[in-house]
Design a protein that fits this description.
mainly alpha, Helix Hairpins, 3 helices, rod-shaped
Length: 73
Amino acid sequence: MDEKKTDNKKSEEKLKINEIFDKLDTIVREMEDPGLPLEESFEHYTEGLKLLKQCNESIEQIEQKIEILEADK
């Protein structure tokens, strides 16, 4: 039962794909500002990479679920 609580908490911490895209869009717009200090640009870049990784993981999970559903046909 503790595993379910942990899994639910992990799910709640992860963003949905649409939310990730929205955050990435915001980061890109902010990084396009030529006045953005280098340190902040690097922070945005790092955050963007983390979001992309999370998005890829979410997409892979969805693809696995689709493959399972298609295999059950």
